[in-house]
Amino acid sequence: MARITIVGSGIVGMATAAMLSRHHKVTIIARNLPGDEPSIDWASPWAGVSFVAGGCTSAREEKMQLDSFTELWRWGEAYPESSIRRVRMEDFYDDDKNPEEVWWKVLPEFRVLPAHVLPKGAKAGTSYTTLVLNPSIFLPWLKQQLEGWGVEFRRMHLNALSDASHLRHDVLINATGIGSKFLSDIADQDVELVRGQTLIVKSDYQKMFMHDNGKDYTYAIPRMDGTVILGGIRQPDSTNPEVDLEISKDIVRRLNADLPNVFSADLAEYDIIGHNVGIRPGRSSGIRIERDLRGGQNIVHVYGFSGGGYIHSFGAARMARDLVEDVLFPLSRSVAKL
Ligand SMILES: Cc1cc2nc3c(=O)[nH]c(=O)nc-3n(C[C@H](O)[C@H](O)[C@H](O)COP(=O)(O)OP(=O)(O)OC[C@H]3O[C@@H](n4cnc5c(N)ncnc54)[C@H](O)[C@@H]3O)c2cc1C
């Protein structure tokens, strides 16, 4: 059994702990922990959360998404208290992708939607059974589950990954999200801070709706508890924690244009429970999952998931686990010959 330290207790750090704790002694250290008052310093508590397949730039990312979907599906079945629920997805887009050839045609009850149901501007749409969850329930629940499996959580703020070297682990996992821009020995300038804003309203709407026109994306995520999350917005290089009501008004105006029989265009007509402002950990050169040897520490980086940390979570965790195994059990020349 090896000793693994994971820096970061967001969805990516905890999914990685779920994979590695089956065989290793895992400690998670983080500045922000599940159950804390939500803070703009980390992304996971602010997410929708829905599983919207797509946005992949490689077969590797498609595999990550499929692996995550499969794992989250299993968890939802085994642990209903996790808040994971199955819902019907209707997903529309304005670009030229062929809906018959998308990777997610393997998802349950997939079908291409007929032209007459497409919202204005959309060229195609697909439907499948997908998953939603509520991070304010899911994250503390997952922490408790991991603790039951022997994972230890410690609050710690690092200025550099080298600050953790005294913990004497075999491998250090870097799952710090936007933190990788600010850790002095990583200082990844490709990390981008992408502001998001949503509102939670009372509603019995029970389908997952998504319309991505390339510039804006408009969505309604049912939490299956009488509330729905309405979004969205991508604002690169903004970290303003204040709610911008003009954005909320624009979100409901867009939703009304797409679903006029369900959502009003007038913000005053909503029973608003709250607003969310969070910063997505983007990365201009893409998701980073790779090995590194720095300051005498064996490191595996797992960050840069932007608006898809949950969508990629368990798939990314499996890849990180494989890299940890490579570090712990390097191929020797004699084994390689077998
Ligand atoms: C409005 C909004 C809606 C979203 N909706 C969805 C959705 O529907 N589906 C989806 O898949 N994704 C969604 N996302 C994106 C998702 O939230 C992120 O991709 C995901 O949370 C990233 O997880 P992470 O674990 O990489 O990082 P984080 O959640 O940011 O966690 C980082 C961890 O590292 C720790 N850390 C950082 N720096 C240090 C340091 N120096 N020392 C010690 N600890 C440190 C932090 O304390 C924290 O524990 C949404 C995001 C927003 C803002």
UniProtKB/TrEMBL annotation:
Annotated binding of FAD, by residue: 176
Pfam family, one: DAO
Family to which the UniProt record says this protein belongs: Belongs to the DAMOX/DASOX family.
Protein name: FAD dependent oxidoreductase domain-containing protein
GO molecular function: D-amino-acid oxidase activity; FAD binding
Cofactor: FAD
GO biological process: D-amino acid catabolic process
GO cellular component: cytoplasm
Residues annotated for D-dopa binding in this entry: 280, 307
